[in-house]
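Student: I would love a firmer grasp of how sequence relates to backbone shape in proteins. Thank you; the sequence and its tokens follow:
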Amino acid sequence: MKPEILFYGNLYSCPTGKRKPDCPVIYFENLSFEEKVNWFDGLAPEERKSVMDYHKFCVAKR
């Protein structure tokens, strides 16, 4: 399974309850879930990895 598939839930909502102001997904909160998935899927592979890495480190810090 692609790691991106596991990340989609984070696009729906923040697992900690509230996105931090520097979260890369916060800028897209006004989009529907489908639009967020389309945005994420449209990123270059290194950009997707960066967004997923941000999430991984953010969750670990909380």
Remarks:
- The two ends are 26 Å apart (CA to CA).
- The first helix runs from residue 3 to 12.
- The mean pLDDT is 93.
